[in-house]
Amino acid sequence: MVVAIDGPSGVGKSTVARAVAAALGIPHLDTGAYYRLATLVSFEAGVDPGDEAGILRALDGIRVDFGGDGRMLLGGEDVADRIRGPEVTAAVSQVSAHAAVRRAIVAMQRAWVSDHGGDAVVEGRDIGTVVFPEAPVKVYLTASVAVRADRRAGDPEAAGLTRDELIAQMTRRDHLDSSRANSPLRPAADAVVVDTSHLTAAAVVRQVLDLVGRV
Ligand code: DC
Predict the structure, then answer these.
(1) Under DSSP, is residue 127 helix (H, G, I), strand (E, B) or coil?
(2) Is the separation of the CB atoms in 57 and 45 below 8 Å?
(3) Dmax over Cα atoms in the chain, in whole Å?
(4) Which protein residues touch ligand 1 with a CB less than 6 Å away?
(5) How many CB atoms lie within 10 A of CB 198?
């Protein structure tokens, strides 16, 4: 079974998805890591984030494996920290807006889940709407941008930014992610929307496990 967890950055998707996966004893897939990886390999190949064909060429032939626990391996090298750095974070929304890039990455994500036996907690922006629209459990997490910025404050992608700069960057990324033509960030029609602004991670995890228990 796929448990789909979508929502904007800093809402707590990774924390919740990891805990739900551990409780269910199934793997966890962070789909944002793939868009970040595409951004990193494009930078390394000297490709502009607006150059769709160039990004596809940069992705072609790379060996990627999402190893769980947030680890992303590129040709065997752990690039988890590099994909969460400020340069990648600033450009990832532009890279992830290209339709052909999304098609290539969605295929990798579906293959990862099927290679891992078909059961997984999958977090992202378009899991319930596009990647696994048939998932029996779909959760869409929300929270105010101020709360999300505070949750992100200690993360590598917030390094060097003031709180106001972080809020401005997250607002910009939310806008780009929800207004793009291809697979915009939005709840699936049958998703359960949970406002996490005033909830602990443990309380959100309980709600998700409760939904899983009803399937
Ligand atoms: O979850 P994250 O912050 O690591 O995601 C990085 C970017 O990747 C995010 O700004 C939008 C994009 N993304 C996406 O378009 N679709 C997904 N399923 C996951 C992430």
Answers:
(1) helix
(2) yes
(3) 49
(4) 9, 31-32, 35-36, 92-93, 96, 124-126, 173, 177
(5) 9
In this structure, of 47-51, 71-75, 140-144, 191-195, the range with the lowest mean pLDDT score is: 71-75
Q: Which residue is it, tokens 């269910």?
A: 24
Confidence (pTM): 0.94
For residue 171, report the distance from its CA to the centre of ligand 1, in Å. Answer: 14
15/143 Cα distance (integer angstroms): 14
pLDDT at residue 44, rounded to an integer: 95
- Residue 68: band (very low, low, confident or very high) from pLDDT cuts 50, 70, 90: low
Edge-to-edge strand order for the sheet containing 137-142? 28-30, 120-124, 2-6, 137-142, 192-195
Residue with tokens 């972080």: 166
The single residue listed with the structure tokens 């448990």 is 3
Q: Report DSSP state, residue 47.
A: -
Decide if pLDDT at 45 tops 70. yes
**What is the torsional sign of CA 167, 169, 170, 172?**
positive
Cα(192)–Cα(208) distance, rounded to whole angstroms?
9
Polymer length of the chain: 215
Instruction: Name the E strands within the chain.
Output: 2-6, 28-30, 64-68, 71-74, 77-78, 120-124, 137-142, 192-195
Q: Say if residues 94 and 176 touch (Cβ distance below 8 Å).
A: yes
pLDDT at 157: 81
Residue ID of nearest Cα to ligand 1 atom 11? 93
Residue type (1 letter), 32: G
**Domain 2-213: which CATH class?**
alpha beta
